[in-house]
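Example record

The entry below shows one chain as it appears in the dataset: sequence first, then structure tokens.
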Amino acid sequence: MHSGFACALLSLFLGMIKYSTLALLVTLSFLSATAQHSRQIVVFKDKKGTQSTLANPSAYLSAKAIARRTSQGIAVDSTDLPISRDYLDSIAAVPGVIILNKSKWLNQVLVRITDPNAITRINSFPFVKSTSGIAPRVRPGYISKNIIEEAELPVDNARPYGTAGVDLDYGGTVNQIRIHKGEYLHNLGFTGQTITMAILDAGFLNYKTNPALDSVRLQGRILGEWDYVANHASVNEDNNHGANCFSIIASNRPGIIVGSAPHARFWLLRTEDVFSEYPIEEQNWAVGAEFADSAGVDMISSSLGYSDFDDPAFDYSHAERDGNTSIVTRAADLAARKGIIVMNSAGNSGASASDLRYVNCPADGDSVCTVGAVDVNGNIANFSSWGPNGAGKLKPNIVSVGAGTVYASTAGNPVAGNGTSYSNPNVAGLIACFWQAFPELNNMQVIDAVQKSSHRYLTPDARYGYGIPDFRKAFITVLQQRASVVANLQANNCAASISWQSKDNNTMQYRLQRRLSTDTGFITIHTVTGSGVDFQTRNYLYVDNLKDILGNVQYRVQQVVTADTTVVLGTSAVTVVDVCTSSMTPVITVSPNPVRGNILRISISSGISLPQTEIVVVNMRGQIVKRIRKALPQGISVQEVGLANLAAGMYVVKIYSGSEEIFTTKIIK
């Protein structure tokens, strides 16, 4: 207790003779306890009286947050509902109580108590489940154990600058990107443009003047900031730990330092108070994560951890770091339930002889992607915390460079430091780039793909987890998994239609290959370049003339992604048991149907030339809305019909050869 406060209490005692000594001592005792834990958590029993409804989530969630839930098939539930306003008003009306923040997920509020009778009054409310002390008054001059502050180290190791074959001129970060083949994603154009990430940390000192972060500021990709410790809208004047982590992801000084997701968008949230070591910071983290969810972030990157506190009564044993106990872990898993990828450092106590060596909270979370630390050669860092968590679940999930990690100094130059605090943002940025390529995956599918690409996936252990992710491998694997190849024999045995689907853009190419029973290998029979600038799923069709061919015919589609990456998307086969019965009758296939874009492809395979071919598109009123006249040669030709100017609906496609109608079908746009 502060000496001045004690003297004031003594004077009060001597001057209040009308009260019994016993009564005053009880009051003094309660004041002492309140002073010890002046900040308390109040947990509510339910959310009765909340004015919000599950039917109208737009009242408390952003459109992007709702879209995330919708795209991943996640229902809005009671944890999304705001806390009952009646409950909050009742708590706020208690004398000597100030509400500092509130967690709707955990249905609890953080309050500051200045009146010794306040807790008794709060506990008397029928809607209050429990109250518990969570932190004392601020103790100045203390440096938190929840983050690691490392001296800046020179960037050495002969790191190559502007290495040939790397489109981005990474400067000092080249090795920590290349260990994951992260440059493969960057060279394909995936640098985080569509991903929004919240960084929860201890402060972002001088980020507004750091030259390495100029582009993210000037391009308006910092969406906002909030300090949950001081309760104000600025994080620029606090601890530098968050700024270091931020720079590992967002730096963009070509030739000097480039981050792992230099074009992502960010929320900067301060939840950690470096001058205290109490569970109040877990509550701050939970509230920050809830805000991030409500604002529609895709990812959370956190380089914080909790296991031991100033007051040992709050410590989490290894058994309690079980993925379900601590405030911060429960909040992290709830964030993952909302479709957010939650990334967190494993901890820096791996060299400890006690159970402190195990991963901390929220790194113990079941749905948290926990990151340990290696050096650029893949050797485990001795400080990297161990797994498993207290329930025996494998931790860490993956590892990244956390020994000698390059980040930006306040002057914007590359310096190096140690800690899982740094390994986490390095790989978090690359996961953002990977998710940009495959936004159709949900958060847990992304983590699963990253884990399966890691070098120890088949033999995980308590230090590496699944190991070092390989993002080239992850990209190729998911591309193949989501592709399809189907071959169908036409009824008259004259042709096979081969359709395939994959993600591409116009920098990529496909090779359709065929193998007859008489061939020794596959032979390329058709090539086509991907269409469009954006990396999207597209459908392709080719009709192969099988005149005079009998037996088994195998087809294979290869996708040429880059000059050094050719991927087999799949194979399919047909068996021709009878010779072509009518080489004079054209084989016509229309795709895609329904038309997902604005292009309809019509493949016509004919044994003779068709000098007077007419393709017409007719609406349901019988009006011709599109007409194409062409002279088609013998063989296979593919006509593209643009439908951009047509409204959505059903149409009829008719094809004439001279005056004879040779084909008709319905399509849906």
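Notes for this example: The chain has five domains: 1-36, 38-135, 174-477, 483-581, 584-669. Residues 584-669 form a domain with the Immunoglobulin-like fold (CATH 2.60.40.10).
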